[in-house]
Amino acid sequence: MTAKRATPAPYLLAYLALLALAGVSLVFARAIHWGRWDLVINLTVAVAQAAIVLWFFMHLSEAGFQVRLGIGVAVSLLLTLLFLAVADVATRHVQPPAPHPGPSFGFYER
Amino acid sequence: MHEPALGEQFVDLEHQSHALRFGMWVFLISEILLFAGLFTLYAAYRTMFMSDFKAGILHNTFAYGTANLFVLLTSGLTAALAVHGARSGRRIFTGVMLSTTAALGLTFLAIKLLEYRKHFEEGSLPGPWYRYHELPTFGGNRFFTMYWGLTGFHALHLTGGVVMMCWMAVHAFRGRYTPQYHVKLEMGTLYWGLIDLMWIFLWPILYLS
Amino acid sequence: MVLATPVLGMALALVGLDHAFRLGIFDPAVGGDPVLFQHIFWFYSHPAVYIMILPGMGVISEVVPTFAHRRMSSYVAVAVSTLGIAFVGFLTWGHHMFVSGMSTFDAGVFGVMSMFVAIFSAIKVFTWTGTLYRGQIVVRTPLIYFFGFLFLFVFGGMTGVALATQSLDVHWTDTYFVVAHFHFIMVGGSVTAFLAAAHYWFPKMFGRLYNERMATLSAVAVFMGFVLTFFPQFLLGNMGMPRRYYSYPPRFQFLHVLSTGGAWLLGGAVLLALGNLVVALRWGRKAPPNPWHSRGFEWLTSSPPPKHNFAVTPTLDFSPYDYALTEEEARARAGAR
């Protein structure tokens, strides 16, 4: 299943797209600030960059259905773990949300 | 010219290539889940110590991290071009591209070491060695501990990737990768792509405010 | 397994680093949170138990059609349920953490998900039972193990759904009730299925037949021993007997004695079953290619199979488990010798 590419053009175009997306993130890091949307935008840029790297550099365009399904499952599990752990921390009814730092239980001072 | 060996359990080279490629993807998927625990910890602690994490990012070494992003993105391009070279049968070009990728990986590590040295001087170290005066809070400690953990595991994987790239460069110069059978080269560049992917996500969460 | 084990690897690596270098990743004294360790740990460890039961279920899916001489009543249902258990099983890990200090929002999510995954197991149980209906049932040792499996797995599964309710789990957590539940699934489920597999494929693997009477006797003894060991533990746990305690009030004594006696019976029965197989290795009668008259493809070759399994690669133009064909027709169609 080795598709013969006549030119390396797709790789170069993908690279330029990656640079451009990084530029967008840099703008939001240094110049414009939209508060809490900054993180959302930066992560969206990261997802787009990841998609480009996967599709072009890692040849996901040539890979079969099983590979794409596997990646989808892995990412959805990662997001599940992350979401539920963050939800746990965020919805505990403690103010402030962090556990109170107290005197160490002495484990490390042996 | 080197003849690729066909394993006894495979019908033909095409079958073997498919199996190797799929097996590599399974490994990459397991690596995604390996980092999942670290990303989860980061997200949970960020939720707990939101202002401290944001302060930590502002105090982080932005220039080094961003330089490393561009180094890795470029190395992803050179790795992909190496595969292109193998598919077109250009042995020297493939070897040069793989060597460049390895060199860019070493550049990443060099910048990382300089960055770690800066953290040493500042005192933004993980765990009990934390003595960063600009951010003397538990949240700051958590941020930098997660920073060191995330970038440390990433750097370990990248070091392995550099070694592998050097190995493959030697093989490429010897003409091991033909247009008909170069699946091991593809597998190596897949791993490199994963390292690239990791940094693409580490950069915004550790350096961008 | 591929998806879950790396998460465990990371959890253990982080704890190791924590202890070796006092990083305090999970240490509350420096702002860490041990509940996060539990999240990452159980994210692996719950799918791990599904890793342990799914192969057993696969064995049952082979054994039941063979001894009912009928194809599975719905192969698609079993296949889809396997995928369902595998995926939804990843979403349920928090039911090990109901009393850890986790938020009640998460507890609700995990409770619902844990009940949801039981639906898939139930679909499988009904499919297997439906396969027996109107079959030409021949009762041999593997099928006896299946009957044990059916009863014990259903009991274990139902108590699992009960444990998935946070309010009930607060009473039962860390008691013998939980111990009984997972042993019903692990031993009553997985180990029973393993013994069924051992007795089902033994002739194929080693080319010998074992003593059917001894095997049947040991199967029944395993079942009796198991029930005697672990059913009292449900009662003990409900009465409040905690896990990992070696001393207890005198009113628990009787049930403990029952459980211990059952354990001896169970151990002896398993040794008997395995010993019977070991004896058959040396002194068993030679096994024909298809002692159970199954239509599974592995039974088309000799016992034991040659290297690469078939002397001549068979052509298989009939579907698996096609019990409408007679055995001769199946062998002829496969071109098997």
Task: Describe what this molecule looks like in 3D.
The complex is a heterotrimer of chains A (110), B (209) and C (337). Chain A has 110 residues and is mainly alpha-helical. Chain A folds into 2 domains: 7-61; 63-97. In chain A, 64% of the residues lie in helices and 0% in strands. Chain A is built from 3 helices and no strands. Chain A has helices at residues 9-30, 37-57, 65-91. In chain A, helix 1 packs antiparallel against helix 2 (37-57). Chain B is an all-alpha fold and 209 residues long. Chain B has a single domain (13-207), classed as Four Helix Bundle (Hemerythrin (Met), subunit A) (Up-down Bundle). Chain B contains 6 helices and no strands. In chain B, helix 2 (50-58) crosses helix 5, helix 3 runs antiparallel to helix 6 and helix 4 packs antiparallel against helix 5 (138-173). The longest helix of chain B has 36 residues, at 13-48. Chain B is elongated and about 60 Å long. The mean pLDDT of chain C is 92. Chain C has 337 residues and is an all-alpha fold. Chain C has helices spanning 5-21, 34-68, 75-88, 104-132, 141-163, 166-172, 176-206, 212-239, 253-283, 327-334, and strands at 208-209, 285-286. In chain C, helix 5 (141-163) packs antiparallel against helix 7. Chain C has a two-stranded antiparallel ribbon with strand order 1-2. Helix content of chain C is 66%, strand content 1%. Chain C contains 10 helices and 2 strands, in the order αααααααβααβα. Classes of the chains: A mainly alpha (110), B mainly alpha (209), C mainly alpha (337). Chains in contact: A-B, A-C, B-C. At the A-B interface, helix 1, helix 2 and helix 3 of A face helix 1, helix 3 and helix 6 of B.
